[in-house]
Every structure is written in structure tokens, then in C-alpha cells.
Amino acid sequence: MSKSGLKGRNKQFPLSRLYSSPILSLVQLYHIIKFVSTFFAEICKIQQVKPAVFLCVISCVFPAAYFSSADSAALAVGSADFSAVDSSVGGKTAIDLAEAKNIIGTFYQPKKVYININFLNTLDKRQFMSGLGEVLKYAFIEESCHYENPLYLFEFLTLGCEKIMEKEPLTIIRMIEYCLHLKIAVVNQDEKEGGLRKILNFGHTLAHALETITKYKKYTHGEAVVLGMFFIIEWAYKKQYISYSYYRLSNELFAKYGFKPLDKKYPTEKLVEIMKKDKKATSDKIAFIIPSEKKQVKEIKLAPLELEDMFL
User: Fold this and answer.
1) 188 CB contacts (<8 Å, ≥6 apart)?
2) What is the pLDDT of residues 183-212, one digit of tens each?
3) Beta bridge partners of 115
4) Which of 25, 76, 97, 99 fits 88 for a cystine, CB–CB 3.0-4.6 Å?
5) pTM of the entire predicted model
6) Residue by residue, what is the 3-state secondary structure of the chain?
7) Mean pLDDT, residues 54-76 taken together
8) d(CA 3, CA 182)
């Protein structure tokens, strides 16, 4: 199936035009300098940055800055369930560093997104389940996405678990479409994560810290996100942000797909230190997206000292 990455030709998301001239205009050069200087400033906030990192920034940012300023066309192909339901749409690109995940990147919207569900049959079970982690995320944030119609994704995932696990084509297509409706709704309201788009980071604050502390070798991204969601839902229940019935339903949904909470302790100080470098963090606060009601989330910010009880 084929889906446009975002709504058609409008002022907020104009579709890119093909561009073939190799000559940089002054406007393009301005954009490149602006992009690169911004990201160098961001990376310099991280302590003990190695020289090799600057080469990574150049290789990532310079081409993106050039293509963005040149208004070139880009196509995205979602070949895994993670990319099909989430990362192929929205224009966010980034690289991981040893010090923090997704800390350097750009926004560049694709002209079109192509998704063929036959690709999912090439995935091993671990990778397929990893992508389902992001699918479950949308069930918890659906109403906060402000999509025009209710999709009942939470209920769909609960009742359709068996067919999803069997990769039944029509069910998989419906699952992908639901998630894309929600992602596109969010990005059309907040392209560059100035506000609403932050809800897409539900479960991600701890997830990124877990990926970083284990050097990106122990958990896939989806696995880490599931652990992050388990963690923040548990914390929200303890702090009475959500009811027991919703807490129980949430855990039952995870259990249906065979997901389990974190069973290993990591040094709290190290996790907090990594979280302080998270892209959503400010100079003195760490941001979390927490459940507030069924299918709704909100952002809270905590000082590092306030996090100690989270890991007890």
C-alpha cells in the first residue's frame, strides 16, 4: 500500500520538488550553516565528546541540510513494522552517540511513504515484536493525538492479538493504518516537536537511557520502549495519576503480547545522568510523558533529585 507521508500540498508541509542543480545558492548556504552550527552547539553540550563524533555530525547533518535547502524529493520505504507504523512518517532523522541516543538529527519530510506488508514476513520474531512495542505506544496515547475520529486502537490490539501475531494481512494493514493516522495527526499539528509531538516519546525517556547504558547491544529500540512504558505506567499508578483498572488493563495488554517489565537493575545515578542529556531535558529538569487517563498522556518535568524514588 502507498501513503503520503503527510497531508498534500499545504503551507505547513509542501511536497518537495525535484532539484538537480549542483550549485549552492546563498539561501541554501545559509540553511546549511544554520543547521550545522545548531547541531554543533547541541553536541558540544555533551561532555567528553570525541573528535570522531564531529565527523558523524558532518556526515549526517551536511547532506540533510543540503537536501532540505535544495527542496529535493525524498521517498521513505517502511520495510519493518517499526518503520511502517512510526519512523517512516514525520521526517525525523537522527544518529546515536555513546553518550546519548538520538541527540543529533534533522527534520526532513519525505514526498511519499511506501509500505509493503510482505516485508514483514522477512523479519525474525524478535524484530517483529520490537516493532509491536511502538504499536502499543499508540494505544496508550490515542486520545492525546487529537485525531478526528476515535480508532479504538487499545481495544483493537486487545481483541486482535492472535491475528496480529499470525501476521494476518488485513489485520496488519488495519493496524498500520491506525498508527499512521495517529502519527500524521500529531505531526500535522507539531512538525518539529515544539509541543504536542512530545507525546510520541511515551516510554522513551527510560528507553533511551537503557539503550545507551547497554551500548545499544542488549535491547532493540522497541524492547526498550516497552520497558520504558511498563516503568512509567507503574510509577503513574503509584503516584495516583491513573486508576487501578487502567493500570490492570495496561498490564494485561502487555501480557497478551508476551512482554514483561524490566527484570534487571541498573545504577540509578548513571541512568539519571544519561536522562539529563535527553533531547527533551532542560538544564535542570528531565521530561517524562506519563499516562494521565485511559489512552491519554501528558508531559511532566522532574528535577534529578526527584527521580530517586522512581527507581526504588
Assistant:
1) 6, 7, 12, 13
2) 999 999 999 888 999 999 999 999 999 999
3) 78
4) 76
5) 0.77
6) CEECCCCCCCCCCCCCCCCCCCCCCHHHHHHHHHHHHHHHHHHCCCCCCCHHHHHHHHHHHHHHHHHHHHCCCCEEEECCHHHHHHHCCCCEEEECCCCCCCCEEEECCCCEEEECHHHHHHCCHHHHHHHHHHHHHHHHHHHHHCCCCCCCHHHHHHHCHHHHHCCCHHHHHHHHHHHHHHHHHHHHHCCCCCCHHHHHHCCHHHHHHHHHHCCCCCCCHHHHHHHHHHHHHHHHHHCCCCCHHHHHHHHHHHHHCCCCCCCCCCCHHHHHHHHCCCCCCCCCCEEEEEEEECCEEEEEEECHHHHHHHHC
7) 49
8) 13
> Alpha-carbon distance 194 to 213, whole Å?
27
Long-range contacts of residues 83-88, Cβ cutoff 8 Å, at least 24 apart: 83/131, 84/115, 84/117, 84/119, 84/120, 84/131, 84/176, 85/131, 85/134, 85/135, 85/138, 85/175, 85/176, 85/179, 85/180, 85/183, 86/134, 86/179, 86/183, 86/200, 88/5, 88/113, 88/115
Q: Convert the pLDDT of each residue in 118-154 to its tens digit.
A: 888 888 999 999 999 999 999 999 999 999 999 999 9
Cα of first residue to Cα of last residue in the chain, in angstroms, is 46
Structure confidence at residue 307 as a pLDDT band (50, 70, 90): confident
Identify which has the larger pLDDT, 273 or 283: 273
* pLDDT tens readout for residues 219-247: 999 999 999 999 999 999 999 999 999 99
